[in-house]
């Protein structure tokens, strides 16, 4: 597999833009009044994509030598350049993507980056562009190290990661219904709409990248119910189209919690517990502030001047 995936994605850019144009036109005709696109939301998504792309280019310069180190010193085998090796690489990376994505909803440090993708209340092709420049800091790249140990060179790792993300553009739409037998094998628009929903029945399900078999195997699959329309976004809305605020609000909230809680166990929870820990902490702070008394729970050491900085994350 010797080709440049970055060039492939660049070549796909007109296809992505054409899909956005078609979807906006189609939805305005078929669901007038639903306002499934907004200029401000779409521009925010585009800005987030450009910021993330720039950060990614820089990050790969530092990360590729790490993959090269593991490939040179710890690889268990060497794959010939065949379609078999491509399929093994594709399946292995897609499984690792599932693990990364599930961890991103269960570990606040990773959620701080991933929340950007979920914080829009709209769901359309442009939502796919809504990414965080903080993924390299959060450590997304760590999840691909096993591919180097499996015997895949760094260039192929970068390529398959980009191909996986490129595929995922096409599942961010409300213009496509269920796709028959494909729903059993692949991530589809219907499956990914559920993933972006905050309904009680849907929240934190369907972590698939390309293949949905991992959700079905590991018990995180939920089917879209036509009688239960997805409500998109996070539990407490972000209320901003500012890409910088969207990128950093959860990091700021996490840092404020880390400072305000007492004890190292709570400080570690502020960084690595599921996002629900933070939601609960913030709710207790708000309750204690409105009651005008010290927060219950004793050891959290709540201080009043952080409340405004908090955005409650999506509950796991
Ligand atoms: Zn997600
Ligand atoms: Zn998505």
UniProtKB/TrEMBL annotation:
Provide the GO MF annotations for this entry: glyceryl-ether monooxygenase activity; iron ion binding
Q: Its topology with respect to the membrane? A: Multi-pass membrane protein
Which residue ranges are recorded for the region named Disordered?
294-316
Give the transmembrane region(s). Answer: 6-25, 80-100, 132-151
| Record's keyword annotation contains Nucleotidyltransferase | no
The name of this protein is Fatty acid hydroxylase domain-containing protein
Superkingdom of origin organism: Bacteria
What organism is listed for this UniProt entry? Paraburkholderia domus
List the lineage, top down.
Bacteria, Pseudomonadati, Pseudomonadota, Betaproteobacteria, Burkholderiales
* Location of the Fatty acid hydroxylase domain: 86-220
Q: Which GO terms describe its biological process?
A: lipid biosynthetic process; membrane lipid metabolic process
Q: Tell me where it mainly resides.
A: membrane
State the coiled-coil residue ranges.
none
Pfam families to which the protein is assigned, alphabetical:
FA_hydroxylase
Q: Where does the record place it?
A: Endomembrane system
Q: Which UniProt keywords apply?
A: Lipid metabolism, Membrane, Oxidoreductase, Transmembrane, Transmembrane helix
Query: What InterPro entries does the entry give?
Result: Fatty_acid_hydroxylase, Sterol_desaturase/TMEM195
For this record, an example GO cellular component is:
membrane
């Amino acid at each position: 597999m010797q080709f440049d995936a970055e060039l492939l994605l660049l070549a796909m850019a007109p296809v992505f833009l054409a899909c956005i144009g078609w979807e906006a036109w189609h939805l305005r005709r078929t669901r007038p009044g639903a306002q499934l696109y907004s200029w401000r939301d779409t521009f925010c998504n585009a800005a987030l994509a450009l910021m993330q792309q720039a950060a990614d280019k820089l990050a790969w310069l530092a990360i590729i030598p790490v993959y090269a180190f593991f490939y040179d010193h710890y690889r268990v085998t060497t794959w010939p350049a065949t379609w078999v090796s491509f399929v093994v690489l594709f399946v292995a990376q897609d499984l690792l993507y599932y693990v990364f994505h599930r961890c991103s909803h269960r570990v606040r440090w990773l959620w701080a980056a991933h929340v950007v993708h979920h914080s829009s209340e709209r769901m359309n092709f442009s939502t796919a562009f809504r990414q965080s420049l903080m993924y390299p800091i959060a450590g997304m790249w760590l999840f691909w190290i096993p591919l180097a140990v499996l015997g895949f060179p760094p260039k192929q790792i970068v390529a398959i990661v980009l191909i996986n993300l490129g595929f995922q553009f096409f599942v961010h739409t409300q213009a496509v219904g269920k796709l028959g037998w494909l729903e059993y094998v692949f991530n589809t628009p219907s499956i990914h709409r559920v993933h972006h929903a905050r309904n009680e029945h849907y929240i934190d399900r369907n972590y698939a990248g390309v293949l949905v078999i991992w959700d079905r195997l590991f018990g995180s699959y939920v089917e879209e119910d036509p009688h239960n329309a997805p409500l998109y976004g996070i539990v407490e809305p972000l209320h901003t189209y500012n890409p910088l605020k969207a990128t950093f609000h959860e990091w700021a909230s996490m840092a404020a919690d880390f400072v305000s809680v007492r004890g190292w166990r709570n400080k570690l929870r502020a960084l690595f517990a599921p996002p629900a820990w933070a939601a609960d902490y913030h709710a207790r702070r708000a309750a204690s502030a409105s009651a005008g008394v010290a927060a219950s729970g004793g050891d959290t050491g709540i201080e009043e001047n952080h409340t405004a900085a908090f955005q409650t994350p999506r509950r796991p």
